[in-house]
């Protein structure tokens, strides 16, 4: 116990740092989203992120090729990540930060549901209850009929759904596919698709804004390194809940930079979603069965704009 405790503390600190950096990444996305289309933001964040990807992937010494062993699942996951990236970046651009995070925090609940048809898992009554409570929390945040729902709300919900789908597919095919396939395909797809759309939405950028795009890529890479270090240092059940610290950063950043003040429904709904997500995470952490779809798909919703944490962990462990 004395040897394990410091490791968990170290992992928790790495995770807190990583998610704080991700929150800063999302703040910059929101800043540039006032001026540029989400398609343009995704394209340049992916394009400028490829040097970081190259540095990581040239270290993979194993033989193989980039042909997926599960082409249809890979195509579905790649499409889901592409949709998630555009929708998440658009939501951050148009909604208060705290609202976006509250909705994205529904991903662990959706992963639990998707684990039934995709992984063949059995979700028992208590976990179903947690999912239902969490979805009620989403309704509290959205307040249908009481507050005007914007396109940004639909985008955030879409990002949560497709982010969960992309994550659960990694859980299904991750043991068979090379990590480089899981890592590169979503980024390549984003680059190609966004490049095709870019002529219709492109807006010239001053050098300062171009630097902001580069910062988005750099922060995503640094945050990924921190969270990988966290998972290497501590148990997943310690690291995964640290993602919820982003709501604190969102509240602070929203107040300081965007004059956002979360209302009571957003705060209450976020609390309900976080509580239900924590229950699922902690219950999986105590489980000695294979029923751990949330812990084993990591935490940050996959957007296809940076390296995926799960495959990077598996690649490092295989070497």
Radius of gyration: 19 Å
Morphology: globular
Discrete helix count: 14
In the predicted model, the low-confidence regions spanning at least 5 consecutive residues are: 1-6
Reconstruct the topology from this structure.
Layout: H1 4-33, H2 38-47, H3 50-57, H4 71-94, H5 97-104, H6 107-119, H7 125-142, H8 151-173, H9 179-201, H10 207-233, H11 236-239, H12 246-258, H13 264-286, H14 309-318
Helix pairs in contact: 1-4, 1-10, 1-12, 2-4, 2-9, 2-10, 4-8, 4-9, 5-12, 5-13, 6-7, 6-8, 7-13, 9-14, 10-14
Short description:
The chain has helices spanning 4-33, 38-47, 50-57, 71-94, 97-104, 107-119, 125-142, 151-173, 179-201, 207-233, 236-239, 246-258, 264-286, 309-318. It is mainly α and 319 residues long.
Describe the structure.
The chain is mostly helical. The protein has helices spanning 4-33, 38-47, 50-57, 71-94, 97-104, 107-119, 125-142, 151-173, 179-201, 207-233, 236-239, 246-258, 264-286, 309-318. The protein has one domain (4-318). The longest helix is centred in the first third of the chain and has 30 residues, at 4-33. The protein is globular. 50% of the residues are buried.
What are the salient characteristics of this protein?
single chain; 319 residues; 73% helix; disordered N terminus
């Amino acid at each position: 116990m004395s040897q394990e405790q410091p490791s968990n503390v170290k992992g928790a600190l790495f995770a807190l740092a990583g998610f704080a950096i991700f929150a800063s990444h999302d703040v910059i996305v929101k800043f540039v989203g006032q001026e540029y289309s989400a398609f343009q933001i995704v394209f340049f964040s992916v394009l400028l992120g490829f040097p970081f990807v190259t540095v990581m992937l040239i270290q993979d010494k194993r033989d193989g090729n980039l042909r997926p062993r599960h082409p249809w699942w890979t195509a579905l996951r790649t499409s889901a990540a592409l949709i998630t990236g555009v929708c998440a970046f658009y939501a951050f651009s148009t909604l208060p930060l705290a609202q976006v995070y509250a909705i994205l925090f529904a991903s662990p609940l959706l992963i639990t549901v998707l684990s039934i048809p995709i992984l063949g898992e059995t979700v028992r009554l208590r976990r179903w209850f947690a999912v239902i409570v969490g979805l009620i929390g989403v309704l509290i945040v959205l307040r249908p009929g009481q507050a005007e729902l914007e396109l940004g709300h639909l985008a955030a919900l879409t990002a949560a759904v497709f982010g969960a789908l992309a994550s659960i597919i990694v859980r299904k095919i991750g043991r068979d596919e090379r990590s480089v396939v899981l890592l590169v395909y979503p980024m390549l797809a984003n680059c190609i698709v966004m490049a095709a759309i870019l002529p219709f939405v492109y807006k010239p950028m001053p050098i300062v804004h171009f630097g902001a795009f580069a910062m988005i890529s750099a922060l995503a890479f640094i945050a990924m390194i921190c969270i990988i270090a966290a998972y290497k240092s501590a148990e997943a059940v310690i690291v995964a809940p640290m993602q919820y610290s982003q709501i604190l950063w969102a509240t602070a950043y929203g107040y300081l930079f965007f004059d956002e003040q979360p209302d009571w429904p957003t705060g209450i709904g976020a609390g309900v979603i976080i509580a239900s997500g924590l229950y699922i995470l902690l219950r999986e952490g105590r489980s000695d069965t294979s029923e751990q779809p949330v812990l084993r798909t990591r935490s940050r919703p996959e957007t296809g704009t940076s390296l995926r944490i799960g495959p990077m962990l598996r690649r490092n462990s295989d070497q």
